[in-house]
Amino acid sequence: MAIKNNRSKVILMMATLLLGSFITTLAETLMNNGLPMIMEETHVSQMSAQ
């Protein structure tokens, strides 16, 4: 019984980590693709954006 419970915890942790890494990758991709366009529209230089 304890082994089944432990296995389900591991599967839940792995699913959570995979979902988190997917969301992080998606957010970074959107920011890297969207930031230059936003900076051009608002006339912000790269030095002041950092």
State the main characteristics.
single chain, 50 residues, mainly alpha, 2 helices, 90% helix, 0% strand
Task: Describe the protein.
By secondary structure, this protein is an all-alpha fold. It has one domain (2-49). It has two helices and no strands. The longest helix is centred in the middle third of the chain and has 41 residues, at 2-42. It is rod-shaped. The mean pLDDT is 80.
Task: Label the overall shape.
Answer: rod-shaped
Stretches with pLDDT under 50, minimum 5 residues: none
Radius of gyration based on Cα positions: 20 Å
| Residues in helices, as a percent range | over 70%
Number of continuous helical runs: 2
The biggest sheet, with number of strands, parallel, antiparallel or mixed sense and barrel status, is: none
- Summed up, the domain count is 1
Number of DSSP strand runs:
0
Q: Roughly what is the average pLDDT, rounded to an integer?
A: 80
Structural class: mainly alpha
For the termini, the CA-CA separation is 53 Å
Helix/strand order: HH
**Strand content bin:** under 5%
